[in-house]
Design a protein that fits this description.
Layout (H helix, E strand, L loop, with lengths): L7 H16 L14 H12 L6 H17 L1 E3 L9 E3 L3 E4 L5 H10 L9 E5 L4 E5 L6 E5 L5 E4 L5 H14 L5 E4 L2
Antiparallel strand pairs: 1-2, 3-4, 4-5, 5-6, 6-7, 7-8
Helix pairs in contact: 1-3, 3-4
């Protein structure tokens, strides 16, 4: 049976990604084709203008709460039926129109009050993280490097290919679709 605990390095990176995303949220609830329609742009602008308290201090508390939830799980009582509470160990963190339970719990613990970026999703694997923010936006894949840095790319595929591309970027420098990130 697979150990459901998420490796600490992956938890730390996931927290960093969410803190960055919430510090500068992108509100995009439309496909690129729909963005030419005025009413969709007004909706996105109105969402961005809603009040928020995403200060560095609040986001730091959010990060601490999210790390605790990803590391230790979240006790959840189902909303339906006569079911017992259970420990949720969430590897999929998402926002459709509202944040998932883990993100909502971290925000509540931290006192974070804001609209989360709509149509945002993350998957935390043992060897990579994928993340996208906004409707129809491409995913970015994050791979840990042995020296503590991260290789990020918009390309997905076989892990061996990612290792080859990371080696190329390390030797030749960042590319428009692939880079080395220090943190």
């Amino acid at each position: 049976m697979r150990d459901e605990r998420i490796p600490e390095r992956m938890v730390d990176r996931a927290v960093t990604i969410w803190k960055r995303a919430l510090a500068n949220p992108i509100y995009r609830n439309t496909t690129p084709r729909d963005r030419e329609h005025f009413q969709f742009e007004v909706l996105n602008a109105m969402t961005a203008a809603l009040p928020k308290n995403n200060t560095p201090e609040v986001l730091e508390r959010f990060g601490e709460a999210l790390k605790d939830i990803l590391t230790n799980g979240l006790m959840v009582t189902p909303d339906y039926g006569d079911r017992q509470p259970y420990q949720l160990r969430d590897r999929h963190l998402s926002v459709d129109y509202h944040p998932c339970r883990s993100l909502a719990a971290a925000a509540e613990r931290a006192g974070l009050k804001m609209e989360f970026p709509i149509k945002t999703g993350m998957y935390i694997g043992d060897d990579h993280i994928s993340f996208s923010m906004g409707y129809g936006e491409p995913r970015t894949y994050h791979y840990p490097l042995p020296d503590g840095r991260w290789f990020t790319s918009g390309l997905s595929g076989d892990p061996a290919d990612s290792e080859l591309l990371a080696a190329y970027v390390l030797e030749h420098g960042n590319l428009p679709f692939a880079k080395i990130d220090a943190a």
